[in-house]
């Protein structure tokens, strides 16, 4: 009975994390029409670096924020690929266990830990997306 309660709690937690992620993803902060855009410290540093690079003759088409977003998206893509590989390996291990309870439990634990890792990656993605979008 304790195991079923524990599994239900895990499923509810994962669904809650996914729900929060999608709420942040689709939530759009409304700005008033006449509001003046405020510049942040990152924008000021970025402007200074672009001015210096242009003076030295370098192309400044990509901003620091664009570069950071590209690196973060690439890292999250690799983490997604790792998740997919772990799920496939665990599924194959479970199917080929032949009734061996120890092998099946290892595969189940790997799948469970992979889903937890995916949930953490989704929350991290949501936080970085909000950070680069609104701050």
Structural commentary:
With 135 residues, the protein is mostly helical. 79% of the residues lie in helices and 0% in strands. The chain is built from 4 helices and no strands. The protein has helices at 2-26, 41-56, 64-95, 101-134. Helix 1 (2-26) packs parallel to helix 4. The termini are far apart.
Number of helices: 4
- Give the helix level as a range of percent: over 70%
Taking all residues together, what is the mean pLDDT? 76
Please tell me how large the radius of gyration is: 22 Å
Measure the end-to-end span.
Answer: 46 Å
Q: How large is the share of residues in beta strands?
A: under 5%
Structural class label: mainly alpha
Q: List SSEs in N-to-C order.
A: HHHH
| Strands, count | 0
The poorly predicted ranges are 25-35
Indicate the overall shape.
Answer: elongated
Assembly type: single chain
Q: How many strands, which pairing sense, and closed or not: the largest β-sheet?
A: none
């Amino acid at each position: 009975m304790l195991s079923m309660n524990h599994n239900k709690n895990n499923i509810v937690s994962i669904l809650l994390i996914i729900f929060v992620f999608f709420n942040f993803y689709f939530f759009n902060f409304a700005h008033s029409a006449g509001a003046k855009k405020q510049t942040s410290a990152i924008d000021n540093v970025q402007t200074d670096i672009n001015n210096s690079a242009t003076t030295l003759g370098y192309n400044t088409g990509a901003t620091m924020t664009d570069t950071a977003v590209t690196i973060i998206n690439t890292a999250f893509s690799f983490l997604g690929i790792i998740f997919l590989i772990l799920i496939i390996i665990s599924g194959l291990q479970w199917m080929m266990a032949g009734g061996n309870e120890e092998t099946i439990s290892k595969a189940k634990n790997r799948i469970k830990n992979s889903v937890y890792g995916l949930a953490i990656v989704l929350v991290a993605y949501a936080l970085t997306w909000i950070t680069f979008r609104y701050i």
